Structure formats: structure tokens, C-alpha cells
Amino acid sequence: MVSRPRVLVVEDDAPLAHLYCTALTMNGLAVMRAADGLTALRIVEDYRPDVVVLDLMLPQVDGWTVLREFEARPSTRGIPVIVVTGADTAPIAHAKAVIRKPVDPDYIATVVTRHLPSSGHA
């Protein structure tokens, strides 16, 4: 049996997270959610997502710190991160894409699918 590509959605706004997760699941992806950066840092090692969808404005540990930590860890350095933010920011280092809120959840699914590793998922 082939496993589905895994996505970690890091979003503290529960209704938005639900919309993103639903769109991603409907596009054949396995999805896990973290409501804050600290939780994301804790579960990323065990969950081993193929792509991370990351909000920047998070409680406990913000998205900027999560990005820096992902880049610093050899085990997470290669995971594509798609930043979804309402902040008006310049290009973000270590992010494969930056999507501005508000956004259509189906568009997030399209961008995530585009950034899945081309080698497939084991």
C-alpha cells in the first residue's frame, strides 16, 4: 500500500486550519495540525511531513522561529515550508512559497502539491 504524502499545517486560527486541512485531505494528502509553533517543533520529528504549511503569527513560538529551527536541524532542513500569512513581509528565507491571507484553501492545496518532493513518498 502506498502512503499518502504528509502535510503539517501550523495555524492557530481553528476555522482557517480546518479549511486548510479539509482542502488538503480532499486532494489526497494526509494532514496533521499544530496550533502553535512549539507543538510544531515537537511533532515534526515524529510525523516527518513532506511539506509544512506555516502561519507566522503563532502563540508560544512564532513562525519565524519555527523556520529558523527547521533550517538549523538536519532532519527538517529539507522539508519545503509554505508560509501563509496576513503580514505584509518581504520574501522569507527558507520558505518555498509565501501566500498572503486571505486565501482560498484550494489554492493552498495546489501550492502544497506543487512543492511535494518529486521522488514520491515511501
Instruction: Give the number of DSSP strands.
Output: 5
Under CATH, the homologous superfamily reads Response regulator
Poorly predicted regions: none
Q: Can you tell me the CATH architecture?
A: 3-Layer(aba) Sandwich
Helix content: 25-40%
Given this structure, which CATH class is correct?
Alpha Beta
Q: How many whole angstroms does the radius of gyration measure?
A: 13 Å
- First and last CA, distance: 10 Å
The number of domains is 1
Q: How do the strands line up in the largest sheet?
A: 2-1-3-4-5
Condensed summary:
By secondary structure, the protein is of the alpha/beta class.
What does this 3D model show about the protein?
The chain has 122 residues and is an alpha/beta fold. It has a single domain, classed as Response regulator (Rossmann fold), CATH 3.40.50. The chain contains four helices and five strands. The protein is globular, with a radius of gyration of 13 Å. The model has no long low-confidence stretch (mean pLDDT 90).
